[in-house]
Specification:
It contains seven helices and six strands. Strand 5 and strand 6 form a beta hairpin. The strands form three sheets. A two-stranded parallel ribbon has the order 1-4. A two-stranded antiparallel sheet has the order 2-3. The protein starts with a helix and ends with a helix. It has two domains: about 35 residues, no CATH class; about 120 residues, no CATH class. Helix 2 packs parallel to helix 5 and helix 3 packs antiparallel against helix 5. It is mainly alpha-helical.
Length: about 170
């Protein structure tokens, strides 16, 4: 049995971590019980970083940084002699899902610079998988690995969201 005093303390403790994420102008002082809500410029919601201007800059930068760490794993496996088919599988399993995560939410409003930043990660992965002699250019790598561009993947995710029966 939880006493009223313990229950009140627990609810106040959770209020200390509450914040308000608003788009646009700064709101008036809004309290949550005895605690004021903290207004933030950005917040991470279900793994997607949303800023107050919906620019997705923070999300794309964080995604590119995280996938760069995962590309290091791919490099290490390549240096140990892992076959290209297995490297492709590792890319599809560990790196591509991070590049595509929640893309229907943010992909349609990316700038060309942000799209390029994500494409650069994919190009680096293909370069690692195929190696120097086999990698000649991005289009050739797409054909050789039988994979699509990120833009195509983002469009397919939007279509699957809109028409799930297809």
């Amino acid at each position: 049995m939880v006493s009223r005093e313990q229950d009140d303390n627990q609810s106040h403790q959770n209020c200390n971590n509450a914040y308000l994420h608003l788009l646009g102008t700064i709101p008036p002082h809004l309290p949550l019980g005895p605690h004021p809500l903290q207004v933030v410029q950005s917040a991470k919601l279900l793994g997607v970083t949303v800023d107050d201007q919906l620019t997705w800059k923070l999300h794309v930068t964080a995604t590119a940084r995280l996938t760069a760490y995962r590309l290091h794993m791919l490099c290490r496996l390549k240096s140990l002699g892992t076959p290209n088919d297995e490297l492709k599988g590792i890319y599809i399993t560990f790196i591509l899902p991070r590049l595509m995560y929640a893309s229907p939410v943010w992909s349609s409003s990316l700038t060309s610079t942000q799209l390029q930043q994500l494409d650069d990660v994919q190009k680096r992965a293909y370069r690692i998988i195929l190696g120097r002699p086999a990698y000649t250019n991005y289009d050739h790598a797409l054909t050789t690995l039988n994979l699509s561009t990120l833009a195509t993947g983002h469009q397919a995710a939007l279509i699957r969201l809109r028409y799930p029966w297809l």
